[in-house]
Amino acid sequence: MTQGRPLLNRRLAAFGTTIFAEMSALAVRTGSINLGQGFPDTDGPEEIREAAVRALRAGHGNQYPPGPGVPELRTAIAGHQRRHYALTYDPDSEVLVTAGATEAVAATLLALVEPGDEVIALEPYYDSYAACVAMAGGTRVPVTLRPDGGAFRLDLDELRAAVTPRTRLILLNTPHNPTGTVLTREELAAIAELALERDLLVVTDEVYEHLVFEGEHIPLASFPGMRERTVTISSAGKTFSFTGWKIGWITASPELVNAVKSAKQFLTYVSGGPLQYAVAEALRLPDSFYDELRDGLRARRDLLSDGLAEAGFGVHRPAGTYFVTTDIRPLGGERDGIAFCRALPERCGVVAVPNAVFYDHHEQGAPFVRFAFCKRVDVLEEAVARLKALAATGR
Q1: Judging by beta carbons within 10 Å of its beta carbon (0-12, 13-18, 19+), is residue 249 exposed, middle or buried?
Q2: Which of 57, 149, 152, 263 could pair with 145 in a Cys bridge, judged by C-beta atoms 3.0 to 4.6 Å apart?
Q3: What pLDDT was estimated at residue 10?
Q4: What is the pLDDT of residue 64?
Q5: What is the mean pLDDT of each run of 10 residues along the chain (395 residues)?
Q6: Residue 11: which of 124, 157, 101, 115 has the closest Cα?
Q7: What is the per-residue pLDDT for 395?
Q8: Residue 163: CB partners within 8 Å, gap ≥ 6?
């Protein structure tokens, strides 16, 4: 290598290829049903797709859109926050459009974290969090969600103990991927109290905000004193089933938005111009759209969860998101989720993702495996049949 050094920056050397790329390639190679990566197998509303076509044909967004996002979308995002959560944001100074929530997380951490800063994240965590903290030069401090009574729970005492003088911010994800946990009002109030007491920033990834089956989604920014210190992140992909469009956003105070914008402008700068106009229309869909989305996914959650339980898995039925976490130990002799997932396509033609890759403490996640239920009902039924056959053979 040049000058005796590896080519890849040492901050990223530990990450390699994402588990999603590996398992999706395995699904293609084996012709398996892919319940690993979280993307729907049908498109979202036809009227929103047609809105994108109209924008393309009208020349709206075909050239560089404004850096913060097109005004129509920023206004719609502010309207969405007001309509659903009674949170008021100025679309001109408190909304920033990004290339999906992943870029929003990256730009936010690059803007707010300096080398030596500690970032607390709930473990297991979406894999890009670790890479983004590393790129910013920060130190990741995991606080583990632990299985309890069929769900995964946050230990607030453990969270409080994780805060040190070097803690810069807490990175929250609720509804939580991969466990499906939805933090309660009491838990969020305790987190808000901690942030105020220790003068911490909080970044909240709320991309599954409309996919809640039990409980309710409450933005942390709605708690007293938190609007000024919270960067709220969401996106269109999960809600409207257009994950390939990569239209995300942040809402925050002008000072926080300006900080994130300073980093974001040197990443994608802008993206998805015509799609931004379509997402603006999507955010104004009636309440019936959100009700039907939630009810349809709840039914598919139950179909897959019941099938996995019948196949012998231990099932942690999620309160939100479109993932169900399972425990493979009840299958007998199974302990290593990574090995299990790599072998599963050949054994029964289904792909899942091992939760261990979302943990710093790999042993905590070793027996857990995540399945996605954002698929057609017939696909889920076939997957369940294959998994039951796997259990029946004892292989």
Answers
A1: buried
A2: 152
A3: 85
A4: 96
A5: 77 80 88 91 96 98 97 98 98 98 98 97 94 96 93 96 98 97 98 98 98 97 98 97 97 98 96 98 97 97 97 96 96 90 94 94 94 97 93 60
A6: 115
A7: 47
A8: 120, 194, 198, 200
Helix (H, G, I), strand (E, B) or coil at 83: helix
Cα-flanking dihedrals φ and ψ of residue 147, to 5°?
Answer: -65, 135
- DSSP-derived letter for residue 118 is E
For residues 190 and 10, give the distance between their C-alpha atoms in angstroms, rounded to a whole number.
36
DSSP 141: E
Using CA atoms, how far apart are residues 243 and 38, in angstroms rounded to an integer? 9
Helices (H), the chain: 19-30, 46-58, 71-85, 100-112, 127-136, 156-162, 185-198, 237-240, 254-264, 273-282, 287-310, 337-348, 362-365, 377-393
**pLDDT value of residue 342:** 92
Amino acid at 296: G
Which pair of tokens denotes residue 352? 């899942």
Give the integer Cα–Cα distance in Å for 37 and 103.
18
List the structure tokens of 137: 């030069």
CA atoms within 13 A on the CB side of 384: 19
Q: What CA–CA distance (Å, rounded) separates 122 from 201?
A: 15
**Would you say 180 and 211 are in contact if contact means Cβ atoms under 8 Å apart?**
no
Q: How many residues does the chain have?
A: 395
Say what the pLDDT of residue 214 is. Answer: 95
Domains in the chain, CATH or no CATH each: 19-44+288-394 (3.90.1150.10), 46-286 (3.40.640.10)
Tell me if 251 sits within 8 A of 89, measured CB to CB.
yes
Closest listed residue to residue 83, CA positions, set 303, 297, 242, 289: 289
The residues, ordered by sequence, that sit 6+ positions from 237 with a Cβ below 8 Å of its Cβ are 100, 101, 207, 243, 244, 245, 246, 247, 248
